[in-house]
From TrEMBL:
<dbReference type="Pfam" id="PF04305">
    <property type="entry name" value="DUF455"/>
</dbReference>
<dbReference type="InterPro" id="IPR009078">
    <property type="entry name" value="Ferritin-like_SF"/>
</dbReference>
<dbReference type="InterPro" id="IPR011197">
    <property type="entry name" value="UCP012318"/>
</dbReference>
<dbReference type="InterPro" id="IPR007402">
    <property type="entry name" value="DUF455"/>
</dbReference>
<protein>
    <submittedName>
        <fullName>Uncharacterized conserved protein, contains ferritin-like DUF455 domain</fullName>
    </submittedName>
</protein>
<feature type="region of interest" description="Disordered">
    <location>
        <begin position="39"/>
        <end position="75"/>
    </location>
</feature>
């Protein structure tokens, strides 16, 4: 049995099956927060995370250009969308656990670990919600191909905690805030009640994941006496391949502590 938070993280990362990965993720989160309740804490420890997390054999992973496009308004299109979100959520579970053992050489307050354990716990719930919706529609996670390359950002930033925070929560997860309202509307139009409810839960909880990224990015900038905005631009240009795409959900981004001067200058300017 893992004794430290870092060992728990590595156990989640090296578990392939999605349901089993997320079950462990939630159990370890409960263990962590039980210890934190009285002001205590489990040791963070040290453990070597794998370069890439274990994943189930299905879904097969395809280059995004080769993933078949389906009409978004059709039943098949809605299943494809739920499947894509399930894949994103499973990837997010691994991303949040990965940041814990990956950067233990950088001294961080215990609140840093609280935030990522909580985010990982929520992503595990989101994965289950999406799996349940897929099963309600007669499908399942693994039935369709999924995007390869989602782990690329994690690999690229494996030696750079600020790069990781800039690209994963502050670019990729912030993008989720931009696109989720339209997705919810699409399922509302189809009167797909459980999917609407699930996506509304996801949308509400994702704001805090972006906020955790922004909080710890600012914390590290403050500790090093660095100006956060130019550093953010520099890191996103270095690690994120492609421009940021408006329209932005400026309201939710602001809730998450991301002012417009972070993202607008990166529109069509990244390489
Ligand atoms: Fe999520
Ligand atoms: Fe998230």
């Amino acid at each position: 049995m893992p004794q430290t938070l870092a060992e728990m993280a590595v156990d989640v990362l090296t578990t392939a099956d999605g349901r089993e990965k997320t079950r462990k993720s939630r159990a370890y989160a409960a263990e962590w927060f039980a210890a934190r309740k009285d002001g205590g804490s489990l040791p963070i420890g040290q453990a070597q995370p794998p370069l890439r997390p274990s994943r189930p054999e299905q879904p097969g992973l395809l280059d995004p250009r080769d993933v078949p496009k389906r009409k978004p308004g059709s039943p098949q299109g809605r299943i494809a969308l739920l499947h894509a979100v399930a894949h994103i959520e499973l990837n997010a579970v691994d991303l949040h656990w990965d940041i814990i053992p990956r950067f233990t050489d950088t001294r961080m307050p215990v609140g840093f670990y609280d935030d990522w354990v909580k985010a990982a716990d929520e992503e595990s719930k989101h994965f289950k919600l999406m799996c349940d919706c897929l099963e309600e529609e007669g499908s399942h996670y693994g039935a369709l191909p999924a995007h390869a390359g989602m782990w690329q950002a994690a690999e690229d930033t494996r030696d750079d905690i600020m790069g990781r925070l800039a690209v994963v929560p502050m670019v990729l997860e912030a993008r989720g805030l931009d696109v989720t309202p339209n997705m919810i509307q699409l399922f509302k139009n189809a009167k797909a009640t459980s999917a609407v409810k699930a996506l509304e839960t996801i949308y509400a909880e994702e704001v805090s994941h972006v906020a955790y990224g922004s909080k710890w990015f600012h914390f590290l900038c403050g500790r090093d006496d660095v100006d956060p905005v130019p550093r953010f631009h520099e890191l996103v240009r270095k690690y994120f391949h492609g421009p940021l795409k408006p329209p932005f959900n400026e309201e939710k981004r602001a809730d998450a502590g991301m002012a417009p001067d972070f993202y607008w200058p990166l529109v069509e300017q990244s390489t």
